[in-house]
Amino acid sequence: MEQPKTQEALLEALRQQTPKSGLLWKESQDVIPGGLLSGARKFKPYPFFTERGQGAYIWDVDGNRYIDCCIAYGVLFLGHRPPVVIEAIEKQLKQGVVYGTPHSLEIEFAESLIEYIPCAERVLVCNSGTEATMQAARVMRAFTGKTKIAKFEGAYHGWHDYASWSVYIRPDEMGTPERPNPTPESAGIPEEIKDTILMLPFNDSAFKMIEEHASELAGVMIEPVFGGGTIPVSKEFLQKLRAVTKRAGVPLMFDEVITGFRMGLGGAQEYFGIKPDLATYGKVIGGGLPIGAVAVSQEMMKTVLSGDLGLTIAGTFSGNPLTLAAGNAVLKYLKANPQIYKDLAKKGDRLRNGFNEYAKQKGWPASMTGVGSMFQIHLSKSAIIEPRDMLKRLDTPLADLQLYLRLNGVFIPWIHLAFISAAHSDADVEEVLRVHKVTVEACLAAYNLI
Questions:
Q1: Which residues pair with 377 in a beta bridge?
Q2: Are 119 and 295 contacting, i.e. CB atoms less than 8 angstroms apart?
Q3: In the annotation, is 283 catalytic?
Q4: CA atoms within 13 A on the CB side of 298
Q5: Would residue 68 show up in a list of annotated catalytic residues for this protein?
Q6: Where in the chain is the domain with CATH 3.40.640.10?
Q7: CATH homologous superfamily of domain 7-80+339-446?
Q8: Of 46, 57, 66, 156, which residue is the catalytic one?
Q9: I need a labelling partner for 252 at 20 to 30 A (CA). Which of 52, 291, 355, 436 fits?
Q10: 349-398: pLDDT as tens digits
């Protein structure tokens, strides 16, 4: 396929490829604010509308097939419609969709998480990763009797008011590399919440700040792999963070909504060999249905439940039997097939190393970051090692890159956080690599960067 040489030509090619999606896009904007239920789904000239998914592929309403490297933003670890999950859901449908009462699947699910997650002795189950981090913040505040939560600049912990701060780095608002400013990511977040946030830099200054503010900190939360940029945190950094939080008496929370059961059965805790005080989960553990979870110690949960007021957490759909049937099926499958993690790590290494070697050989300002089955493409003359490096990216051509990829049959979301699932074959990975080479060259050439 000859690659479009201008953005106008690229957008027109996408319009011609997805005319039915264009019509649905017009209808959607008449009834849904901005036409989207999630800002993560936006695309130029408009998003494609999906008809179905199977294995490693997704089809739009116009009949175009894509190798799906979005994979529902990391949810579909086994790919679209894996038989083990479909069978579990169909079986549960005959029993009921939702009860509003406890049921045995809750116990089975919690027992599995406790078995696999190093820090888990008790488990709370909710409906999304955002809800999980919100619950975890409440648990830490109840446990410590303190208010302030520390988060790292550039880390994403969901979109609630206490998490949606300094996810994207803004040069005019971000403060110094040693003392970053917390900046809200949305209208409607009360200014007063800023006083409950301690924004940490992704460098050694963070350790000093934690010790300085230990008397007011309810907890510190971190993504072991930063979702924004797919930037792995080094084991050394996490070890230092664990040591300083223990010394300061501040709970440490791993946000494993993305990494949980993706980097291994024990997630990033197992991968790095570091145990936090509590951790949050979502995505993979629901088998494709909405879920979130908080893994905590017995001591922590006993403390927050025994106070004068106690901990209040509720949710009509928390522990939904359909979700837990699917989740239990996934967890059992992963336990029985642990080789999946080695296979996916090899495929991920082949993709990342293959692209980075090719880009270096060509002298391109491009690289691919990630670990295991996670990857992200960057257009930058400098290496992407920490969130502030994202400021050096060539954002205008990068915004077009995922459009070039889609035109060539590879679906990656506009935020570029991407995944390989167990359904992706060696041939699929080779095709993803080939398309990245072709489309990065076309994108850079269109902006006269090569």
A1: 368
A2: yes
A3: yes
A4: 2
A5: no
A6: 83-336
A7: Aspartate Aminotransferase, domain 1 (3.90.1150.10)
A8: 156
A9: 291
A10: 999 999 999 999 999 999 999 999 999 999 998 999 999 998 888 888 98
Judged against a pLDDT cut of 70, whether residue 346 lies above it is answered with yes
> What average pLDDT does range 265-289 have in this prediction?
97
Question: Which pLDDT score is estimated for 240?
Answer: 98
Q: Which residue in 46, 146, 151, 255 is the catalytic one? A: 255
From the number of C-beta atoms within 10 Å of its C-beta (0-12, 13-18, 19+), residue 342 rates as exposed
Say which of 57, 66, 162, 283 is annotated catalytic. 283
- Amino acid 385 reads I
- C-alpha pair distances (Å), 291 with each of 209, 317, 388: 33, 9, 31
Amino acid at 442: A
Does domain 83-336 match CATH 3.40.640.10? yes
The structure's pTM equals: 0.94
> Is 255 one of the catalytic residues?
yes
Distance, CA of 202 to CA of 72 (rounded, Å): 28
240-267: average pLDDT: 98
